[in-house]
Design a protein that fits this description.
Radius of gyration: 23 Å
Bound molecules: fe (ii) ion
Largest sheet: 8 strands, mixed
Strand content: 15-25%
Number of strands: 23
Shape: globular
Number of helices: 19
Distance between the termini: 40 Å
Structural class: alpha+beta
Strand order of the largest sheet: 14-23-22-15-16-21-17-20
Helix content: 25-40%
Amino acid sequence: MHDSSACITRDGELLFAVAEERISRNKHDAGFPHHAIRACLDFAKIRADQLDYVCQGWPAPHKVFGADLKNFATGKYPATYLNVLNSARLYASMAHQNGGFKRFTQQFGATRGQMRFVDHHLAHAISAYSYSGLDKAAVVVMDGRGAWEASSIWYGHDGYLDHVLTIPWPNSLGLFYAQFTEYLGFVPNSDEWKVMGLAPYGHPGIKLDEFISLNHDSYQVNAPLLFERSNGTSLIAKRLGPQRTPESEIDDSFKNIAFAVQDACEIAMMALVKQAIQKTNCRNVCLAGGVALNSKANGKIEASGMVDHIFVQPAASDDGVALGAALAPFLDKGGRLPMKPMRHAYLGPEYTDAGIEKVLVTYKLRATKLDNVAATAGEMLAHGKILGWFQGRMEFGPRALGARSILADPRDPEMNAKVNNAVKFREWWRPFAPSMLKEVAGEYLEHASDSPFMILTSQVRPEKRDVIPSVTHVDGSARPQTVEKEINPLYWNLINEFGKRTGVPVVMNTSFNLRGEAIVNTPTDAIRTFFSSGMDALVIGGYLVEK
Ligand SMILES: [Fe+2]
């Protein structure tokens, strides 16, 4: 569907994971992940014929097509010529490829391993529970669509995962959010972040009851209404006014609609989590599925008082499905999942200083070898420089967490605009996020908790909002990364060096990419992006490149 990826595990230990988009450079790449699979095999130094299992988090083609036909027959999904044709074409091509396994064999050779289809939401659920570090947890999966699923609830206990409930597609929160994302002039299944960022600029008042009904423990999306179009106009546009033209000015009515969409999504997510807690009698919660990237809603769930612990799979969208699918065989014959907490997301490719130097020489770039990378970078940030920061293994999941990041001084109220205009070329309202030493999280945030993945939004303490204005959103919130010395010593040291010079051990961290592009993976990607933007310097491995 989108965000294809691959990972490799050995004895239940996650060794390596990468999204196809990072290598193909095609953002949200939905193609067969041949680059990603090749990178996995290369990392583990094995051949395909040495694999025990090849798993994918998507069911066999006939099961998906069967679910589609049922939806057409019951009128849940309009049986238009185009919808039926698309569904049949997808089925034909997937069946021809045996769901991709034929392609795997063609590209990587025969394997003695077993080829496995894993139900999509089961794969999402494993990706949340098995990596959570929680023995017992209510697991909630919410996405645009699985094969037939939209949301599901599971109960994880002692390595087992019991299915509790499935809400079938198209009664889908992801669908609801995506349709409004498109209405607001953005790309559905991609730009939902923008709606979330825009929402705090709006005000309450818009009613969306026709499109989604909410109650205390669930939700009902009116999918037929969301799909309906007459003369090319969606019913949303008929009810709420013409759809926004992409890149056009955003007037108040669109801001208010973004507010209403986000508000409805938060209420629905909260209701589902509440239901999961009641049904499992467990107050630990794990979340996955693309909807769980809604960090604002996640933060509210965490602060609600109804959960004891929360773990959100950082690769909550379909890239993370690989992590769950790979572990699914452990559940065979009543078996238990390995329970290995995911403490970081640095699971991707890495480049040595020797490799980086070779690239710098190839491009005839003047670079300085640094004695103390963290101190130099901290000093430059304190002087207002905007830095490209390329270090260690690339992150898995949508967030940059100090391996492929653009960094700046969060104290400068103008920095948000500077980075937006000079580097990211993105919309003015989208907030930037802070990375802070774990030790100071309580000083800066209300409800400070361990937040290594930037997937939970917190409120910045009122007295600190003027201290770090460029990473505090208009509603006083921030999407923090708490950095632990033990996990990422170099990044921790950099923030600490910045803190020593400024008294504020917090940096502004945004992903190392230009607007609309995938996050950089290789040194070449980093150099190209550096010279296509207004960044002042690039700290790449042990080297400093300046303009
Ligand atoms: Fe999904």
